[in-house]
Design a protein that fits this description.
Oligomer: single chain
Number of domains: 1
Shape: elongated
Number of helices: 3
Structural class: alpha+beta
Order of helices and strands: HEEHEHEEEE
Largest sheet: 5 strands, mixed
Number of strands: 7
Strand content: 15-25%
Radius of gyration: 20 Å
Helix content: 10-25%
Distance between the termini: 86 Å
Length: 137
């Protein structure tokens, strides 16, 4: 019984420190930036971010507790290091797509790695603005 209690107590102390940070790459591949690079921590919706950046990856965090990258400095540093390794210029926290193109902030929000666009997004100019559309007859 005592051994079982010690094992349970050890798990309570050790498990919260076991946080996995898993990066998934997508889109273009960029070379890693220096390990001590700085990244911009953006606070915008995904539609706005897509005009300035291309998404090159996402970061998943697996932890029993303490997985809020905005309030946990150690976790924030680990995400920054992952971003540098992926060649990202910025990190966007908290944008999850829901139905209808609405983006909401939730406890399980995503962490997106972004690379600065060098020109307009590929879809720029594909859609006419209402002001430039021909008038209906």
């Amino acid at each position: 019984m005592r051994n079982r209690l010690l094992l349970m107590l050890s798990a309570v102390i050790v498990l919260p420190a076991c946080t996995q940070v898993i990066t998934s790459r997508m889109g273009h591949r960029y070379p890693p930036r220096p390990a001590d690079c700085e990244v911009v921590w953006e606070n915008m919706d995904m539609a706005e971010a897509a005009t300035k950046y291309e998404t090159i990856g996402s970061v998943g965090i697996g932890s029993l507790v303490g997985s809020d990258v905005e309030t946990n400095p150690d976790l924030r540093e680990r995400v920054r290091a992952e971003a540098c390794n992926a060649g990202a210029d910025a990190v966007l926290i908290g944008a999850n797509a829901t139905g209808g193109g609405v983006f909401v902030r939730t406890a399980s929000s995503g962490i997106w790695l972004l690379h600065q666009r060098q020109g307009p997004p590929p879809w720029a100019g594909m859609f006419a603005s209402p002001a430039s559309a021909p008038a209906a007859k």
